[in-house]
Amino acid sequence: MKKHKWLPALSAFALSAGITASVLYTSSMPASQAADHLDGPQVKTAENKAGDIADLYAFRRGDANGNPADNDKVVFIMTMVDEFSTDIRYDINISRDRTNPNPDRLLSFRVVDGNIFLNDEFVGITQVNNDASLEAQPIQVFAGRTDDPFFFDLRVATEGPATGKDDPKDTFAGANVSAIAVSVPVSYLQTAGETQFFAWGVTYK
Question: Which of 43, 142, 179, 203 is the most buried (most CB within 10 A)?
């Protein structure tokens, strides 16, 4: 089973300020109520459920926390509908050229018995913010259950924007996801000072 999720082009130095998901945020949300973002029937099967991607986010870390000193770090967060499975590989692909379908950088995760592996190297344990290294560069990694960071008002989508204009409601509030978050230096992504990166998430079984 292979599932692709593409993220629209984002610049590492001009990312949208509208993305406000907090990086490396831990939570003790129960696994009883999972979020889902309406995938097709081939993905929404019991066999493929663990590889069902909810969302992929990318932003400069400084944009999220307001600290300009963190502008040299890029955060990628991929969320899944179900619990992590040892049978699933969770890949975040990064390309420097939008027309190139082959990633220049691959962040390939597995979660096995509470341990997190990145590109086959142990980088930490679940539900903890882990300091690690990737090709001798410092990174931070989190994998675990969190509140779904995606904000969506279903009333507005079905009844029109006037409905929730003065009283927005998050339809996914209280729902949870399995999230992988990784903060990497911009320099890890660059070869010649590129300022744009294009990311997509894929799960493999």
Answer: 179
* 41 CB burial (10 A radius; 0-12, 13-18, 19+): exposed
- Rounded to the nearest angstrom, the gap between the alpha carbon of residue 120 and the centroid of all alpha carbons in its chain is 19
Confidence of residue 182 (pLDDT cuts 50, 70, 90): very high
CA separation for the pair 71, 13 (Å, rounded):
8
Closest alpha carbon to 93 in 72, 71, 78: 78
Using CA atoms in the order 40, 46, 51, 54, what is the torsion angle rounded to 10 degrees?
Answer: 50
What pTM was estimated for this model as a whole?
0.77
Mark out the alpha helices in the chain (DSSP H runs).
Answer: 61-65, 154-159, 186-189
Region 129-154: what's the mean pLDDT?
92
Higher pLDDT, 164 or 143: 143
Tell me the C-alpha distance between 37 and 79, whole Å.
11
